[in-house]
# Entry
Amino acid sequence: MLQFATYLARAAGKKTLNHFRKKVEVERKGDDSPVTVADREAEEWIRGRIEEQYPDHGIVGEEFGTHNEASSIRWIIDPIDGTLSFIHGIPLYTTLIGVTVDGEPEIGVIYAPATDELCEAAIGLGARYNGQDCRVSETSLMRKAVLLSTDMTTIISEGLEPAFRVLLDECRLHRTWGDAYGHMMVATGRADIMFDPVLNIWDAAALLPILQESGGVFLDFAGHAAIDSGHGFSTNEKLATVVLSAMDSVR
Ligand code: IPD
Ligand code: CA
Ligand code: CA
# Structure
């Protein structure tokens, strides 16, 4: 199933390149978030392949909802994570595939089509980045840490600025190399913390197995390893306590 998930993410991700940096119409969904033909095409293609291969499995996708809701195995899809990056021609968008079994995240794949980077993991099978084992950083001091977020706007609107300010004041560098790309940077030791105040299940499902299997953590702001809390952060075990204690300022 991990092999199949990597095939799906890579092939669907490559399809999005047909529309990348081209004139593509941007529509607004009910929640005012943007969507394009590339998001829809990629998700439709992935769903079709899963339905052929595993007709009894469940599917949850950002653009086309839930299929086979009662199934204990669920494929959770975000065809383009970082639609805003995609729309603006920034190559840091990704295709995400997660698999849960009885609600537990077991498989995760992040594929960045424009940079051809693939990060994959299954619980107990390790994590790999472009075919090589990958690992989170060993940074333990905030003054040496690279801190990532997608933007400041959501941090402020979610009332998390006081907590994030503690991290910002202490870190070596803050950059908005965000969305799932930021979590992949943490899983590969290229950044130390990715802070994500608003996450749907399709944003988070692929992340947890990848971070755990690369020796790190993906936690919600209460410190639970969960994909359905609506928010989360990735880091190594040493810095996890620093992030959680920063969160005390908004509890
Ligand atoms: C967004 C990204 C981002 C998260 C947002 C999502 P999209 O996804 O996952 O990291 O903070 O809440 O909407 O819309 O680009 O797939
Ligand atoms: Ca997303
Ligand atoms: Ca998306």
Summary: The longest strand covers residues 73-81. Residues 33, 78, 80-83, 150, 178-179, 196, 198-199, 203 surround D-MYO-inositol-1-phosphate (ligand 1) (CB under 6 Å).
